[in-house]
Design brief:
Elements (H helix, E strand, L loop, with lengths): L1 E10 L3 H11 L4 E7 L4 E8 L2 E8 L5 H8 L4 E9 L2 H10 L10 E2 L4 E6 L9 E6 L5
Parallel strand pairs: 1-4, 5-8
Antiparallel strand pairs: 1-5, 2-3, 3-4, 6-7, 7-8
The protein binds zinc ion (ZN).
The site of zinc ion has 6 residues, from strand 1 and strand 5.
Length: 138
């Protein structure tokens, strides 16, 4: 079940250029930085109440974020991530409702989370992520 908006993903050309805006102009604090090789991005997280902002900088020309920046050169909101207690169940529910999935199975995202995306063609143009904390390894 979805319980909240976990974070907004925001595509930027350069973390080094974008982070000072969030820190100085908005007064938010960068809490966490991480590279996610599977998505070819570097991320920086800012807490904003219950919601986080996830800045995404491409590390490679064929990163999904690099492709987004080709279409949106100024950057912008890239995805909305819903926090759920069961990403696999969310994918099944969406697929059963006729939504096209980008990922059939959750995979490791930033911040120690399991994530998966729905296709924006099925979600009225909003790239939609489901995420949940990764269960502790046993
Ligand atoms: Zn995300």
């Amino acid at each position: 079940m979805i319980s909240k908006i976990d974070h907004l993903g925001i595509a930027v050309k350069s973390l080094a250029e974008a982070i000072p805006y969030y820190e100085r102009a908005l007064g938010l604090k960068c809490e966490h930085r991480e590279e996610v090789p599977s998505q070819k991005v570097r991320t920086a997280f800012f807490r904003c109440g219950e919601v986080h902002l996830e800045l995404l900088e491409p590390t490679d020309a064929d990163s999904p974020i690099a492709k987004f920046l080709e279409k949106n050169p100024a950057g912008g909101i890239h995805h909305v991530a819903f926090g759920s207690d069961d990403v696999t169940a969310q994918l099944k529910q969406a697929a059963a409702a006729g939504v096209k999935l980008i990922h059939e199975q959750p995979f490791d995202g930033a911040g120690g989370k399991l994530v998966a995306f729905l296709h924006p063609k099925s979600t009225f143009g909003v790239l939609t992520e489901f995420c949940m904390p990764k269960p502790a390894a046993k």
